[in-house]
Amino acid sequence: MSVSVQQQDFDVGAEIAALTAGRPQIGAVASFVGLVRDANDGAGVSRMELEHYPGMTEKALEDIVAEARTRWDIMDVRVIHRYGPLRPGERIVLVIVAGAHRGEAFAACEFIMDYLKTRAPFWKKEKTAAGERWVEAREADDEAVRRWSS
Amino acid sequence: MIRILYFASLREAIGQSAEQLVLPPGVSSVGALYAHLAGRGGAWEALARFKNLRVAVNQKMADMDAAVRDGDEVAFFPPVTGG
Fold this sequence. Notes:
The complex is a heterodimer of chains A (150) and B (83).
Chain A: E1 2-6, H1 12-20, E2 28-35, E3 39-40, E4 43-44, E5 47-52, H2 56-71, E6 74-82, E7 84-86, E8 91-99, H3 102-119, E9 122-128, E10 131-134, H4 139-146
Parallel strand pairs in A: 1-6
Antiparallel strand pairs in A: 2-8, 3-4, 5-7, 5-9, 6-8, 9-10
Chain B: E1 2-6, H1 8-14, E2 18-21, H2 30-38, H3 46-49, E3 54-57, E4 60-62, E5 73-77
Parallel strand pairs in B: 1-5
Antiparallel strand pairs in B: 1-2, 3-4, 3-5
C-alpha cells in the first residue's frame, strides 16, 4: 500500500504496471482518476488551487486505505492526490485497487474515493470570470459515504 | 503551549494560518478552545460565522468534546472538498 500527496502529475499506466509487476496472483485492477472540470456550479473554471494539511493528509489517506483493507480482501492499493495549482483537464487524484477478482476491487476503489471526498483534508479554490471562490462541500458526498455504513 | 492551525477559507477570514497559544486555565476541550478563540473578537469572530466547522486534534479528525492538552496541535477548517 502506498499513498502520495504531491504537486507533480502522475502516469496512470506506469502506476498500474508498478503495482502489478511480478504478482500473477492479481486478477483484477480497478482504478479511478479524478480530473479538473472546466465548469462548476454554473460558472467556467479557468484554474484551481488545491490546499491541504501536510502531515494529516497522508495519515487520513492511509487510514482510509487501511479501513478498505479490513472490509475487502484486496491485495494492494495505490493512492496519489495532487495539490497546488491545477488547470482544467489535469489529473487531481488516482486510486488503484488490485485484487484477485473484480467485485472487491471495484467496491474498495469506490469506497476509498467516497471516504477521501469527506475525510481527507483538501480544499479547492476555483478561479472563474467573477473571481476566486472556495468550493463548497456537497451534501451528495456526505450521502455517498453514509451508504457504506448501512 | 499548543499549536493552532487554520485552513482554506477560514485561514483567509482570520488572516493567518497558524499560531501558538499557552493553553488558558480551564480550557481542556476543543469546544472550550473554540469559545476562547472566537471570544477574542476581531478576525477571530470568523470562527463563529463558519457553519459545519471541522476540527482535528494531532492530525486526527475530532469533535468539540475532544480533549486538548499542552503540546497538542489543533486545526480548524471548513468541510473538505478534495478528490
